[in-house]
Write a structure and sequence with these properties.
The protein is an all-alpha fold. The protein has five helices and no strands. The N terminus is likely disordered.
Length: about 100
């Protein structure tokens, strides 16, 4: 049942956009970054399978996003989200999250 809800949730997050950020730090961020904060929490959650991306190395975020986009890493949601971004957008999103506090 949950697998059926994930695509709809991802689509709603992408369409909603929004300006409220779950990541600590200054409000804002590049276009598209809000689609990340719906699933990737700003606070550490010990039993979550979804990793935090705030404070991670930008190069790692870029690599993961491009691998999801190309289909090199299988996923239920991330591949569809990553396909919506070009290289410049991925670079900007990665740099913004890397600058956020862990």
């Amino acid at each position: 049942m949950h697998r059926l809800l994930l695509p709809g949730l991802a689509a709603a997050l992408l369409l909603a956009g929004g300006s409220t950020w779950a990541v600590d730090g200054p409000p804002g961020g590049p276009p598209g970054a809000s689609s990340c904060t719906g699933c990737h929490a700003s606070a550490k959650i010990t039993d979550s399978v979804i990793p935090r991306i705030a404070g991670r190395k930008a190069a790692d975020i870029v690599t993961f996003m491009r691998e999801y986009r190309s289909g090199a890493w299988p996923s239920s949601v991330m591949g569809r989200i990553a396909k919506g971004f070009d290289d410049q957008q991925i670079d900007a999103i990665a740099a913004w999250f890397a600058a956020q506090p862990e």
